[in-house]
Amino acid sequence: MGMMRARVVIAGLALAAMALPAGAIGTTLHPSVIDSVGDVGEEPSVAIGTDGNPVISYHDATNDTLKVAWCNDPACAGGDETTTTIDATSGAGQFSAIAIGADGYPVIAYSIFGWNLMLAKCNDRACTGGDETISTVDASGGQPGPYPSIAIGTDGNPVISYLANQTADLRVAACNDPACSGWDETISVVDDTGTTVGVRSSIAIGTDGNPVIAHYDLTNQDLRFVRCDDRACAPGGDTAVVVDATGDSGWYPSMVIGADGNPLITYRRTVYPGPPESSGLVAAHCGDASCSTVSHRILDSGGSGSAVALDADRLPLIAYRTGDLVRLAHCDEADCGSGASLDTVDTTGSPSWEKVALAVAADGTPVVAYDHHTDGDLRVAANNARVSVPGTLDLGSRAIDAGPGTPLTVTVSSTGSTPLSVGTPAVQGASADAFRITGGTCAGQAVPAAGTCTIEVAFDPVAVGSAAAQLTIPSDDPTATAAVALTGVGAPAAPPPTPSEPAPSEPAPAMRPPALSGLRVVGSGSQARLLLRVSSGTRRATIVFTRPRPRSRALTRRLAACARRSSPALRTRCRSAARRQTIARRSGPVRAGRVVLRLAGVPAGRHLATINLTGRGTRRSVSRYVRVS
To answer: What is the mean pLDDT of the chain?
Structure first.
């Protein structure tokens, strides 16, 4: 069967960042153009190098060669990545698949003209220098080579699954050295049903150390699975099963070994004619290592060209294309049984139906590589947001009745290679009510790489003594939670000034009754305090907390006795005393300004607080309902 490649271009939309539920405000992926010289980026494959940076293999369609891009930062940002032609042979690089070898350097499986299976072993992390080892792995009959998938076996050597085009079977090449050199690799036919099988295979190493392969049966339009019983998949003991035979199932399969040790396979299913909900991106979770039982879940009614990996929590992430979008699905369970949250990576131009590539960086964030068909370039969407803040902020000493002090500034720095998305800062901790965020430029902002934003914090102590809290700044930095330790000392209120006697010739100032304002309760339990402000001339404050008495026979008798009193004023006071009971009393000298009274011992609830203020020859009584928690 000959190979034929179609290229479709569809009009696109505007660029959009992608948000993942990965932290307080999610993790934003930023698409970057990696290579735009000609029509490049076809059928990319991505891996994370030992330096933490992505490395991508892809086909340069303009020159019909194999290329590798090495990123010099974890998000491939800056437009200064290293791109190298690895094999300039005409027709090289189709359907490449990349992995990181045991020595930490990339190995790439690919085909030439779709006929021969090749492998490039890089001698450095960026595959530069023009001295890479190029080996022919399979040049036997049957035009071997299309659609390779590569994994590194437990012996440190590559294992490659691929289609033998003319014989229409699935093969596995188990290399005998890290570069697959020497023309002595073990080549095995692992699935041959008399139909065209082995299209778009995906290989992984099972928990027993032997390969497992998912692949598409083009003739029967089924998804198939093979479990090898040895590292080379030698004929005789391998197990092959059909995973999905519904409609046209299995196009663009991708497989990962889940946290439970069983395979999880994603692929495209199309049922026609049939209801729309029966087609789309499917996750098939195997109930055992041999896929003898399988559960299926449709994650998106669109979706093709998928790639699956495990995130930092070992939950499945699936990158794929749908319509004009590159998207990411994040499963909440190991088997994707409850579905997935879907987020958009890129909305610009046409991604067509070609396969996208996915890897997970060391910090747990996804790295998505794809061919942007409208522009004909290679793109990578990733995140390298990093946040930096000072460890502490000392706001000094301030009197408890002086109100908030002059705000101090906390500077938040974006130190990564992609913008830092910042959420709403907050103050938390035992003395959180003593610190106030009064302004700043950070909340809800995207701070550019190497940029900064600010948060203004003021100190307004409510108690004498040391105060400590924490300023937390949520962001999409997956590696750190930004927090600043806030400290300050509440000082006692200053003593009232000594009143001066007016000059004999001046008339004595008029005496005004005391006044109060700003009555509120802060804190709870043993830390509860009553705050109020009183006017000048106030000498003493007495506060009585009362609440209704429970209904009882004694209360009924007291009310009846009150009714027999002849004086209306006595009857009113008696009824009031009979119906309410005093639960707490606070009294003491005060001066004009802010007054802080501790409420330790006052039971929780809603109480009537009667505040009696005594001044020089004057008195004022005010009643307010307050709630103590």
So the answer is: 86
